[in-house]
Write a structure and sequence with these properties.
single chain; 90 residues; alpha+beta; Alpha-Beta Plaits; two-stranded antiparallel ribbon; 2 helices; 4 strands; 21% helix; 11% strand; globular
């Protein structure tokens, strides 16, 4: 079960979660070109080790365990995964 970043992150992009992640699975980072154009951050479901280190540092409570995603944001699991599929295709 991976963690998922949901709607509260849109236009916030606080990178405390990026800094807290021990496996660097949250992108884009501030030093990546996509940071300027993406409206939110994303967690790679294949790289996430389910440690939960990102959850308490998120100032907008946008990060959820996939199984705990609120119903209205359930599609964000697919949005997070699609971001990484798009990146790997480039």
């Amino acid at each position: 079960m991976a963690y998922v970043i949901a709607e509260p992150c849109i236009d916030t992009k606080d990178t405390a979660c990026v800094d807290a992640c021990p496996v660097d699975c949250i992108h884009p980072r501030k030093d990546e070109p996509e940071f300027a154009t993406e409206r939110m951050l994303y967690i790679d479901p294949d790289e996430c080790i389910d440690c939960g280190a990102c959850v308490p540092v998120c100032p907008v409570s946008a990060i959820f365990a996939k199984d705990d995603l609120p119903e209205q944001w359930s599609h964000y699991a697919e949005i997070n995964a699609a971001y990484y599929q798009k990146k790997s295709a480039q």
